[in-house]
Design brief:
Elements lengths: L4 E10 L2 E11 L4 E5 L6 H8 L7 E6 L2 E2 L5 H6 E4 L11 H11 L6 H10 L15 H14 L4 E5 L7 H16 L3 E5 L10 E4 L3
Parallel strand pairs: 3-8, 3-9, 6-7, 7-8
Antiparallel strand pairs: 1-2, 1-4, 4-5
Length: about 210
C-alpha cells in the first residue's frame, strides 16, 4: 500500500529542551496512528507540525507524495485539525459554531444537514442554545458533528475523547471506523484505547 501521509525526520524543541527528534512514519489509506507520551512530551506540538501550524526544527510532511508547506492549498483542502480545546465560541449556538467551523474549511453544509448531524450526536434539543449553556461533553459533541460533515481525508485530532462519556466515545469510534473505511487517514494524540484494528502507536518523550 502506498503512503498517503508521511512524516520524515521531524524534530522540534521548546527553548533549550528537545521535545522530539527523528519522528518518521508513513500511513496508507485506512490507517491511523495513536501518538502517546507524558504531559509536556510534545504531542500537541507534533500534531501542529503535521497540520502546518507550527514549523518543525527539521523534517517535512508529505501528502500523496507532495511535501506540504504552511498555507499550501493542498494542506488546507486535505486536513481537518482539531486541537485539545473544543474551539467553541460561547456566544454562538451549536448550529452557528458548526457552520462557522465548516465555513473556515470551505465546506458548505445546509441547515438541514447541520441539524441532522447535531441530532445524531444528541444535541437536537440544544442546537440553538448559546454554547456557554452546554456542558463540556456537549461542546465536544459539536466536534463529533463536524467530523460527520467535513470530507477532509486526513484527520489530525488532539485528545478527541476528552470530556466525552462512554456513549460519546463509542460514537467517535464509529466515526473513525467510517473515515478509515473510506480510505481516510488519521493521527490522534490520545491517552485512550480505540478499537480500529489498523491503528499503530508512536511514543514520544520519556
Amino acid at each position: 500500500m502506498s503512503a498517503r501521509f508521511e512524516a520524515r525526520g521531524l524534530a522540534a524543541s521548546r527553548g533549550p529542551a528537545t521535545l522530539f527528534r527523528d519522528v518518521s512514519f508513513a500511513l496508507g489509506g485506512g490507517e491511523w496512528l495513536a501518538v502517546r507520551g507524558p504531559n509536556g512530551s510534545g504531542k500537541t506540538t507534533l500534531l501542529r507540525c503535521l497540520a502546518g501550524l507550527t514549523r518543525p526544527d527539521r523534517g517535512e510532511v508529505a501528502w500523496e507524495g507532495t511535501a506540504l508547506r504552511s498555507g499550501d492549498p493542498l494542506l488546507h483542502a486535505s486536513v481537518l485539525y482539531m486541537g485539545h480545546l473544543p474551539g467553541i465560541k460561547d456566544d454562538l449556538s451549536a448550529e452557528e459554531n458548526l457552520h462557522s467551523a465548516l465555513g473556515l474549511r470551505g465546506v458548505a453544509a445546509g441547515d438541514s444537514a447541520v441539524a441532522e448531524a447535531l441530532a445524531s450526536v444528541g444535541l437536537a434539543l440544544r442546537r440553538r442554545l448559546p454554547a456557554r449553556r452546554l456542558s463540556a461533553g456537549q461542546r465536544r459533541r459539536i466536534g463529533l458533528a463536524r467530523l460527520m460533515l467535513d470530507p477532509a481525508p486526513l484527520w489530525l485530532l488532539d485528545e478527541p475523547l476528552t470530556a466525552l462519556d462512554d456513549e460519546g466515545q463509542a460514537l467517535f469510534g464509529r466515526l473513525l471506523e467510517r473515515h478509515l473505511a473510506r480510505g481516510g487517514v488519521a493521527v490522534l494524540a490520545t491517552h485512550h484505547d480505540l478499537a480500529p484494528a489498523q491503528g499503530r502507536e508512536l511514543r514520544i518523550g520519556a
